[in-house]
Every structure is written in C-alpha cells, then in structure tokens.
Amino acid sequence: MRGEGPSPRALLWSIFVFALVVRLAVTAGTIGLSTPAAAEPASDSRIHMNLVQNLLNGHGFSYNGVPTAITPPLYIFFLAGLYTLFGHPAPVRVVQVLLGAASCVLLYATGRKMFNPATGLIAAVLLSMSPVLVYIGGLHLTENLFLPLLLLFLWLSTYVAEQPTGISVAGLGILLGLVALTRAAFVSFLPFVLIWAVTLWGVRNPLAYRVYGLAAISASLVIMPWTVRNYVALGAVVPVQSNSGMMFWAGNNPHAAGGWIWPGSETWTAGSPPDDGMYGWRGLTVDQDNQRYMRAAITWIREHPRDYLELLGRKLVRLYGFTRAEDAGALQVPPTVVLFHMLLLMTAVAGVLLAIRQWRRCFLLLALVIFTNVTTLLFSGGTFRWSNRMGLPWSS
C-alpha cells in the first residue's frame, strides 16, 4: 500500500549495513585491517595481546608469564578464540566490526521495545556513526565485546519484564555475568536488578525475589569459575579483576585532576613506589597491594576534603567532555566531532527525560546512567578509558 513506511526488518538491515560499511571503511582507512595489534595506537591493545599470546602459548592467563587478573578475562578468551581460528588480525577486526553493527540493531530493538520505533531508530543511527565507537571497532579493546553484551542484556530485560519465564530470567543473569567478566565493575550492578524487580512486581510480591534470585544465581555461576581460578592462581579472593585498589588510587590522589594517574616514583607519595612491574610490590600479596592503595587514597581524601569535593566535579566534567582518562586536558578534535558529541549529549538528555516519564519500564536503562556516574565519581572520569600512550586519528 502507498504511504506505508519501511518494514522493521528493512530498517534493521539498513542500519546494520550502514554501520558495517562505515566501520569497515574507517578501520581500513585509519588503523588498517592487517595491522598487528602490537602496532595499534592503544596501550590496552598491547596488554591484551600479551595476555592472548601467553594463553595461546600454554602459559595460562598470565602477563609476561606471570599469572594475573589485571583485566577481566572474557575479552581475552574471545580474542584467543579468534586468533586460534584465523591467526591474523584482519578477521578479528571484521568480527568486531560485525559486533559493532549488530550493536546498532540491538539498540534499535531495545529502543523500539522500551519507547517506540522512532526513538529506537534515532538511537541506532547515532550509534552507527559515532566517531569514537566507529574507530574503536578496529582496536583490540574490551568495548567491542562489552557493548553488544550490555545491549543484549537490556533487550532481554524488556521481555523478562513482560513474561519472566525461568529460561529468560536465567538468560538475563547469564548475560549480566558475561558483562561483568568483560567489565569488572558490573559485578556491583546486581543490587540494581533487585530494585528493578521490586519496582516491576512490588515489594510484597514473591515473584520479584524469585526473579532476582534466579538472575543473581545465574550470574554468580558464570563468574564463579574465574573467581576460583583467581584464588588458586593468586592466593586471594578476586571476583573478577585484581587491581581495584590501584584503580581507586589512580583517581583519588594528590596528583589527580579528575582523570587517571599511574602510580610511580613521581606520583606515589606513601612510601616506596610499586616495583614489581605490574603496579604492585615485591613480596606483597594481591590483597596487600590493594590495601596499600586503598589506605593511601582514603588517607588523602580524609586529609583534603575540600580538594576531594572539587575533584568529584572535575570527574563529571571529564566524563561528559571530550577527554581520555589519563590526559591532563581535553583532546583537540575537529569541530565536526565536537558537534556530534554535543548532539549525542543533547539526545542523551532527551532520552533520560523520556525514560523518567516511564521510569518503571526503563528502570534498568536509568540505572545504567546512575551506575556510570557513580562509578566515575568513585574512580576517575573520561570520555574514553584509553591511555595517553595511544593516539586517535584526530588527536594532536
């Protein structure tokens, strides 16, 4: 019939193809499909490939042959599987580009379910052409696995809210566990799932607690094997990632300006600096390393409350500005990139306002916004989490 718009399936395919073509073109034109991961302008890429190579060479999850949990494991296993299959970085980048394009489709489907087709379409189109996310697809960074898993978690939550079957709820918990094994901070997201369940079904309804209980158990079962491995390999109870103390200190210390400060001889002021090559101390356990970092950070916060309050504001400014976590100031980027970033922020504000109007349906989406801001205030702020040992195609 005349006047009918494109079908949802046609829209999905259009978004997917557009996002795929843009990402392939940018990756080929900037990083290069066949460029080795070690030559990428991202220090995290080199760390990830060190772990992957140790894993493939039979040394287990180790950095330079030393057992570690300095980064969550799932993305490393993901890369190891791809390199086992293909043995070359080009297919790895193609798979990541495919995941990036699929993320746009997932965002459309989630937006359509939570709001309406128009909202889903706007969100998906913005995601498909976001300069940062387009560029990330060519790098060996966790964002390439984290984002599709997180969006899949959100999409499935909309169906659990309507019909909480055992399979769907368990699947939701499994996805949350996988997200946490990609980004360790999301272990702390479980309480939001409880609030979400109570919000949907009522504080006196046993269904809310059954849903949360099954989701929490499923997530725990996914995470537990890695926690057991860490206890055996490191001699410490490490649910996912072992350097939480260092990460906390990195954002809360005398030199911090809202971003991330590496501990070293010029920045560490609480005794001898880290000396084991992995930001720990020789002769100390993982727990003792973390305790030393936490004590130093908390001591500074207690002794400098006014500076700490100012620091919190700087963290949020950096989160919503255009900065990398470790840079001293804002990046120098083309005006078009800045304009797109401003457009993205404006649509994000509009989306939050729209979500607040139907907050029960959108609680997990709003919870992610809250969680991101709280995590930033606790640790450090930055639009990107990359080290200054990397460069973007538009950086100075």
Automatic annotation (TrEMBL):
Q: What is its main location?
A: membrane
For the keyword Glycosyltransferase, the answer is: yes
Q: What name does UniProt use for this protein?
A: Glycosyltransferase RgtA/B/C/D-like domain-containing protein
Q: Which PANTHER family match?
A: MANNOSYLTRANSFERASE YKCB-RELATED, MEMBRANE PROTEIN
* Sorted UniProt keywords: Cell membrane, Glycosyltransferase, Membrane, Transferase, Transmembrane, Transmembrane helix
Q: Which domain of life is it from?
A: Bacteria
Q: For this UniProt entry, which segments traverse the membrane?
A: 63-85, 92-111, 117-138, 145-161, 167-195, 207-228, 338-356, 363-386
The record describes its membrane topology as: Multi-pass membrane protein
Start and end residues of each Glycosyltransferase RgtA/B/C/D-like domain: 72-226
Q: Which GO terms describe its biological process?
A: lipopolysaccharide biosynthetic process
